[in-house]
Amino acid sequence: MTVTASTSEARSRPVQIWLVVWACALAAVLAVFLLQDRLPWAVNYPASAIVPVADWVSALMNLIKSNFSWLTRSITAALGVPLDFALNLLAKNFKIGRGADMIILPRLSWVGVCIAAFLAGRAAGSWKLGALVGGCFLYIALFGQWTSGMLTLGLISIAVPFCIVTGLFVGIWAWRKPWAERLLISPALDLMQTIPTFAYLIPMLLLFGNSPVSAMIATAIFATPPMVRATMLGLSRVPSEIDDFSEMAGCTARQKLWRVLLPSARPALMVGVNQVIMLALNMVIIASMIGAGGLGYDVLLALRALKVGEAMEAGLAIVALAIALDRLSQAIARNHAKGHVYQMVSPSFWRRYPNLTLAIAILAVTTLLGLFVPAFAAVPKAITFTTAPMWKTAVSWITINFFDTIEAFRVALILNVLNPVRAFCEGFPWLGAVFLLGLAGYQLGGLRLAALVAALTVFCAVTGLWEKTMATVYLCGISAFIACLIGIPIGLMASRSDRVEKVVTPVIDTLQVLPSFCFIIPVVMLFRVGDVTAMIATVAFAVVPAIRYTNYGLRQVPPALIEAAKVSGCTKRQTFLRVQLPLALPEIMLGVNQTILMALAMIIICAMVGTRDLGQEVFIALSKADSGRGIVAGLAIAFIGIIADRLFNAWTAKARARLG
């Protein structure tokens, strides 16, 4: 009994010390705020001390552009060959020669592509999957979005293989060289995944111009990290027995890697491929701003002109393409996870790959028919539909009948919630934020984490972006908080009821597939532009991790512990509060971390609907081709995400260690 009491006292003593430390720290920050007349430099960073990092970056980019233009032109020319081929094959026509001697070869027939999509789904999964994938492509055709959809698909078809190959080789190198993974690869991946998508476009626009090649390079850079991480994870999880067996069999290092380890890691690699495809699709939509064209450009033009119906129609086409690619890649990944390998049953190609052979034959026949029958070459306008008038009418009806209610809700939210929180964040002393975040880093991870967090926070101040940074923190924080308020209870209900989980799972799967653009369109219809629109769209985009991780965390609690709690006389409520929730808390907090990162990514895209934060800085820099301004603002956004990620990961690691 004495030992137990002394142990309890030893555990509570550090907690009490930290409570005192935090109370003193908060009191010091409050004192700085109250004495801001005497200490103005501690509240608002002095303009005279701003470091012109943006000017330095602009000068560096201009230097690169002027001295290495030969290299950028060579890269553009080299990448333009396969990209032009894919775009001509899917969306345009091949033009050979000039003037009167020009020969035009047709693009692939839309009929053949739809049938090939059906066959791909059937080969990867079942007739149902084939009908879904083929139906998505047919939907794009019948709603008049075929050419734009194929432009988007053409860019993806070139960017994705580049991402997969690059990610595979970088992942192999990082797996073989732990020092490279620790010092180079992981920090680079963190930065690549937290820098906002718009920030990728600015250097690409400056170096490679306004062209599809710029969009493809930006897409490839953005979508490569998941493949690198999947490769490292897959290789690290290969059982040691397989590794030992390959050495006993006399395999060389190269043979062991390509014939043993990578095939064994194939399930994880296919998950990485799925993530690459979805990120590439998301980025291609955003890259429409620098010449990608396609569905994203249609949405952008419609939003700029406030054509709600056209924006919604193009947005739904994006959704259809995203669902088709996601379900198809997931089915292929599941086949590899089950160890499904296609055996050679005949030397003839068509017997080994009947669906592929049939798809090629149908594509060839329908494309040749397109030379004589125009209905095969292009989607006849007589069979296309448009829902743009319907969406416009629906929005007008809602606006007329519910304008007062919507406006009252919007104004109340702005006046009572958003404006006070924004004023608090923007008025928070920059020195106090550096001190408090550094203190949190020291408590959770020691001196190294404290120095990292403090240094990244100081960067946002010394570059003159403190007010914009805090505006981003305000909108991201309140959106993530509301997303957690909604998502965690839903995840809790899903974890306690299989019936609820069956309803929730397809909904969050669909939300996770939707590109970020698609969340903005319906909200803009009802709430116009501004912070309310950004907040609602961000909540819808970021709520998925809160639901998924809460459900997973509670369901992975060992049943033996739950039974032990019941045997000891605990009620359902006590079992949940004292056993399940504490054990699931690390996973729940990981979900909160992911929710914050997704909210941050979406907030930046919401700069298109009138927010005034770092996203607006990037957006303005993109429109002016100001590389320094855009890259520095992008780094500030990335540093916000890295700070949140590092602190939450440190907290989760401590919680796991405490729970054993």
Q: Kindly state the number of beta strands.
A: 2
Q: Uncertain runs with pLDDT below 50, 5 residues or more?
A: 1-8, 340-345
Describe the sheet with the most strands: 2 strands, antiparallel
The percent of residues in helical segments reads over 70%
Strand fraction band? under 5%
Major sheet strand order: 1-2
Termini separation (Å)? 23 Å
What is the C-alpha radius of gyration, as a whole number of Å? Answer: 27 Å
Total of helices: 30
Shape: globular
Protein name: ABC transporter permease subunit
Keywords: Cell membrane, Membrane, Transmembrane, Transmembrane helix, Transport
Main location: membrane
Subcellular location: Cell membrane
Brief descriptors of the model:
single chain; 660 residues; mainly alpha; two-stranded antiparallel sheet; 30 helices; 81% helix; 1% strand; disordered N terminus
Topology:
Layout: H1 2-34, H2 40-43, H3 53-67, H4 69-90, E1 94-96, E2 103-105, H5 110-124, H6 127-142, H7 146-176, H8 178-194, H9 197-208, H10 212-223, H11 225-236, H12 240-248, H13 253-264, H14 266-286, H15 295-304, H16 308-337, H17 349-352, H18 354-369, H19 374-377, H20 388-426, H21 430-445, H22 447-462, H23 466-496, H24 498-513, H25 517-527, H26 531-555, H27 559-567, H28 572-605, H29 614-624, H30 627-659
Antiparallel strand pairs: 1-2
Helix pairs in contact: 1-21, 3-30, 4-7, 4-10, 5-6, 5-18, 6-16, 7-8, 7-10, 7-11, 7-14, 8-30, 9-10, 9-29, 9-30, 10-14, 11-14, 14-16, 15-16, 16-20, 16-25, 20-23, 21-22, 21-30, 22-30, 23-24, 23-26, 23-28, 24-26, 25-26, 26-28, 27-28, 28-30, 29-30
Family: Belongs to the binding-protein-dependent transport system permease family.
Keywords: Cell membrane, Membrane, Transmembrane, Transmembrane helix, Transport
Membrane topology: Multi-pass membrane protein
